[in-house]
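Quick one: structure for this chain?
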Amino acid sequence: MERLFNLDAQLLFDACIMAIAMFVLFTVLSYCLFEPVRNMLEKRKQRVVSEQENAKKEHEEALLYKEEYEKKLREVDKEAQEIISEARKKAMRQETSIIAEAHKEAERIISRANAQVELEKKQALDDMKQQMIAIASMMAGKVVSSSIDTTIQEELIDETLKEMGENTWLS
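Got it. Here's what it folds into:
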């Protein structure tokens, strides 16, 4: 009798041996080749995950640094504005002080000039009085040179001066 697909004991035995050999081969290959590849892929997967986590942490740190930097910039701007404001106030105080000092100096100059003008006016009046006295005495001396003595001449000068008065000298 012919067998179906030539199934005999030798074929079954060869098929079993081949199956066992393939199983052993796959087992050995999985430990020799597949396991290192799996380990390598697992390590790569872990490295990628850790790099992603590191990138995420660095991004968060960068955001914190950026926020801190912006805060410091705002503080620096605020401080700069305060310094500028203080400088303006100081400049205004100095300006006020300089203007006040200039006004005082101008007042001192004006008062000195007024005092000098008064002094010169008094000197001019005194000079004018002296010249008028000299002219009056010369005139009186010519008119009355022979008949009046010096005491009468002095009395006439004083009387003339009294008649003319102080207002005459001021005009």
